[in-house]
Design a protein that fits this description.
With 268 residues, the protein is mostly beta strands. The chain has one helix and 23 strands.
Length: 268
């Protein structure tokens, strides 16, 4: 009778022993694959590093190994030990990139500075004929022509050319980002420095035609012409027309003389 009464006691002892064993095993199970942090099981932490990423300025998109991970800041991101590349981009800024290596169990923070995108620098080229004109750009002297690939700010600029003996020239040039603008002028000699010509013929009284335009009767003295090549023709009744080409040089004087040949009288 007593042996039958001991059976429940034995079962109770076995049940208590099983409960104690399960309770003792539970701490070990917590280090297994059932408990996770940020998608990575604790049992694999010996293979991972914990990384945080931030940018200056705030708010850059962060790509890790080419994959968009999120917007800055990205905190406590698990990366397997080894080499990785982080890239950060933000509108209006140049992309920043860094390659780094992490060890298992390491905790690191990576912060990248993003440089603001600068507008492309405009350039201007300034020429004059003759060369050597002084150039004033927006009120500031910058040199003498020719001036090539001069960096300036975007927009419209005032340009003034000055050269001894020539009329000054003022104009504008428009500079656009990433482009080269050019401005060229042929300088005009001042009137009182133009070449002076004296037109003389034998006999006197011939009509003077300068570049196809009648300008006077010989002797025609102290007439100013523009520098360069000119065509002169003398015409006088009873005489053959005479013509020649001459080159007028700035700040000089010249005599243009031609003897006219009479027209032969017809034979009787």
């Amino acid at each position: 009778m007593n042996s039958f009464m001991n059976i429940p006691t034995v079962l109770l002892l076995l049940l208590l022993s099983a409960l104690i064993t399960a309770t003792a095993a539970s701490p070990a199970d917590s280090a297994g694959t059932d408990t996770e942090s940020n998608g990575v099981s604790f049992q694999y932490l010996d293979r991972y590093a914990v990384c945080s990423f931030s940018s200056n300025p705030y708010g850059a998109e962060i790509y890790i190994d080419g994959i968009l991970t999120g917007s800055e800041p990205v905190l406590n991101h698990y990366l397997i030990a080894g080499e990785h590349t982080v890239r950060m981009s933000k509108t209006g800024y140049n992309t920043a990139e860094k390659t780094f290596t992490v060890a298992a169990g390491e905790r690191i923070t990576i912060r990248l500075n993003l440089e603001e995108k600068g507008s492309q620098i405009p350039f201007i080229c300034l020429y004059s004929y003759p060369a050597g004109a002084s150039v004033i750009l927006d009120g500031n002297y910058i040199g003498v022509t020719p001036i090539e690939n001069y960096p300036t700010a975007q927009g419209t600029h005032s340009v003034q050319y000055t050269l001894d003996g020539y009329e000054s020239v003022t104009s504008e040039v428009s500079a656009e980002p990433g482009k080269v603008a050019s401005l060229s002028f042929t300088m005009t000699p001042k009137a009182n420095n133009y070449p002076v010509c004296n037109f003389i013929s034998e006999p006197s009284g011939a009509t003077v035609i300068l570049d196809g335009k009648c300008i006077g009767i010989t002797p025609f003295i102290s007439y100013r012409v523009s520098p360069g090549a000119h065509r002169i023709k003398y015409s006088y009744m009873g005489y053959k027309d005479a013509s020649q080409t001459f080159n007028a040089v700035y700040d000089s004087s010249a005599d243009v003389f031609m003897a006219l040949e009479p027209i032969s009288a017809p034979a009787t």
